[in-house]
Amino acid sequence: MDTGEGDDALAAYVGRLAESKLIASPGLRASYSQIGYNLAGRTIENVIHLTYERAIASLVLEPLGLAHSLFVRDDTMARRFAVGHNPDDDGTLDVAHPWRHFRADNPGVGLASAVADQIRWARFHPGKIASQATVESCRPGFADRFRTPNRVAPQYTGRRFGNRSVSA
User: Fold this and answer.
1) Which domains does the chain carry?
2) How many helices (H) and strands (E) does the chain have?
């Protein structure tokens, strides 16, 4: 849902969640959830006291030197960038539309990143493949905190999710 492009977009989105429809009853199926990402983003805003975009920039992007990863569409479009494509029924590729939805969706789909930044991110994450220089360029303790699990996901045994059976 469109809640505008202002700094209150995510707060306004969360305030309107009662208008959202479920795709299935709770516990019936698992699915990607943009709402879940948006709620997580709003939680970050409440804890850090910055907009989601500013929080991610100051806590993740800037410490890792990811200067070409952007949330603002106008900033992205002022640089060289590529867009996604989808095949038509005959296999012809067309530019994917829409490219970006609403600011409130930034936690799940709002970040545009240059290939160089994606490679730098891959070198840092998800393990010990980062160069020592990359790790040292971060704030003290940043890399260790980032790589240390702080939550344990629940175990699902013998339940069906979508078309897959999941077991512990």
Assistant:
1) 9-150 (3.40.710.10)
2) 8, 6
